Every structure is written in C-alpha cells, then in structure tokens.
Amino acid sequence: MAMQASESIEKPPAICLMGPTAAGKTQFAMDLSDRFPSTLINVDSAQVYRGMDIGTGKPDATTRRRYPHRLMDIRDPSEIYSASQFRADAVQEMSDALVRGKTPVLVGGTMLYFKVLRDGLAAMPKANPRVRKQIETLAAESGWETVHAELQKVDPESAVRIHANDPQRLQRALEVFLLTGKSLTALHRENHDPAELPCRLYFVAIQPTDRAVLHNRIAERFRRMLSEGLIEEVRVLYERGDLNLSMSSMKSVGYRQVWQYLAGEFTHGEMIEKSIVATRQLAKRQLTWLRGWPALRPLGEPDKNSIDVVLKILETAAY
Question: Each residue of 274-301: pLDDT tens digit?
C-alpha cells in the first residue's frame, strides 16, 4: 500500500473503491455502507456537476437520500473543478467523517483524483490562455495525434501515460513543458510534497474479469441512459447558452456525443455508436491505471465475498 513516510500507524483507515466505468462501484459502495458506519465520498469528475445526473450514473434522488454522497453536485457545469480542489475537499470530508465516527469510503473512477489524493500535488504553473490556444490550433490543424507526438519528444513518460484521445490531459502536459521548459514528470519529481492525510488509504478495485462482459454492460447502460432521458438532460445544458464543448463538464463521455448530435453533427445512430466506443476507451484507460496501481487489492466481480474482504481490511487495520 502506498503510504506517506510521515504517516503514523495510528491513523484510521479509509477505503478507496476503484474500478472501470459500469463495473458496479456505486452499488457496491452502498452495499458496503449497510455493513458499517461510513461516509460515501464521490471520486468522479463528472458527478461533481449539478444537472448531469443520468449520463454520469448518479443514484436517483430517493437512493441518494438514503445513501448521501459527499462531493456530488457541488459545481455548476460552467465552473472548473481541479484535481487540487478535489484533494482539498476530499481531505476535509475524510476529516469530518472521522469526527462523526465514520469510515470514509471514497468511490469513483477518476483515477487522477485518487492519485492526487495519495501522492499530493506538485507546484505547477497556472494555465496560460496563449499557450493553450497555440496547442489547440496545432490540434485543429494536424490532430491530437500530432500533439501527442510533440509530447513524446519532450516528456516520453507522460506520453506513455496519456492517450492521444485524452486532449485535456494531453494539452496540460505539453502546456507545462512550454511554460517551464521542464516535463510534467520532472516537475512532479522535483516538487513532490504531499500534504498530510487524516487516514491511511486502502485501495480496492472491482472489475469484471472478462472484458467482453464489461463492454456489454457499457452498451446496455448507455442505451438505458437514453431511455431514461439522457438526450433531454443534455438538451437543457445545450440550450443554456453559457456552455460549450471546450468546458471540462461537457467533455464528459456521453455528454459530448449527445451535444454533437443535438448540433446536427451526428445522426442518432452515430451518436450511440460513438458514445459506446468512447466509454469503452475510458474503461480501457481506467484499467491501465489499475494495472500499475501499487498494493491494489483486486476484488473481481462485486459480491458478498468482496464485501467480506473489505470488512476484513477494516478489522485488521490498527488504530
């Protein structure tokens, strides 16, 4: 288990429940909360936004009243919510949970958030509109594959970690180099100074062992989201007038594709196909993160035995 050098063995545990999209993390987290006093903390970068419910897989209102999730619905889709903001908020929520005598259970699929929580943050330059425009122009003219190739030249480690289909992170990594002359990887090494955590983090992951099973779930879930009103949900956002596809919220898988459908760029069938493909690509990136995660406890398909494994972790964790 990754643990900060300054951490004390007396710290109480927090469960970090990871896994690819459509693996069943949310339901498993709620099942866990039935077994011990806990506080559920959202670790999904899209679920922080209000009005983005169906496409992000949030529990319905009735379920959320029974199983409240902290850090859910805390931002308007027009607002930016950074990894550093998440870390500060998550640390506060963990501390509050401990005061109430509850175990923090952090659940979601935004692996960067989990990494930032575990490792802390390096001092990074602020976003620069001029440099970002320069990168966006290159992408518009030559494609994000060309941007990825440029990143490969200056920061091969980040280029391996960041896929060419992940423009937000790709842009940021190249922006950091252009602003500082140093790679994102090098800056993390130089400035690594993790803040103190109130808990010891235990990372567990649920995921189907058969990739085909996960792909089928992804397709079925997206079609269910459509039947539940996803297009209407996105239409409300589309017609607001203050949102666009350059915003982090609207880059979320499913929302971008439905937005493009509403704009007349895709047919209905193309929108469905592209959304499912994009979700599969997201799951693939999440699984790549998990394969390299230190001291991860894989739980496989979520069931009663999986819950027992987590309960055993809590029983054996020394306070």
Answer: 999 999 999 999 999 999 999 999 999 8
**Token reading at 103:** 């175990």
Instruction: Tell which residue, 36, 30, 48, has the closest CA to residue 93.
Output: 48
- Residue 84 confidence (pLDDT): 87
Which structure tokens are listed for 107? 């659940």
pLDDT tens column, 125-135: 888 999 999 99
Q: Using the 3D structure, point to which of 191, 220, 243 is the last residue of a domain.
A: 191
- For residue 20, give every residue at least 6 positions away whose Cβ sits within 8 Å of its Cβ, in sequence order, or none: 109, 207, 214, 282, 283, 286, 287, 290
| DSSP code, position 52 | -
Would you state the pLDDT for residue 192?
A: 52
Q: With respect to residue 220, please indicate whether it lies within any of the assigned structural domains.
A: yes
Q: pLDDT tens digits for 39-91?
A: 999 999 999 999 999 999 999 999 999 999 999 999 999 999 989 899 999 99
CATH number of the domain enclosing 20: 3.40.50.300
DSSP one-letter string for 11-41: SPEEEEEE--TTS-HHHHHHHHHTTS-EEEE
Same domain, 241 and 155: no
Taking alpha carbons only, the member of 260, 54, 293, 212 closest to residue 250 is 260
String of DSSP letters for 257-318: HHHHHHTTSS-HHHHHHHHHHHHHHHHHHHHHHHHT-TT-EEEES-SHHHHHHHHHHHHH--
Tally of structural domains, the chain? 2
The whole-number average pLDDT for the span 97-126 is 93
Please say if the pLDDT value at position 14 is more than 80. Answer: yes
Token pair, residue 203, equals: 């990372």
C-alpha to C-alpha distance for 135 and 142, rounded to whole angstroms = 10
**What is residue 204's predicted lDDT score, i.e. its pLDDT?**
97
- Exposure pattern of 139-164 as b/e (b: 16+ CB <10 Å)? beeeebeebbebbeebbeebbebbbb
On whether both 114 and 233 belong to a single domain, the answer is yes
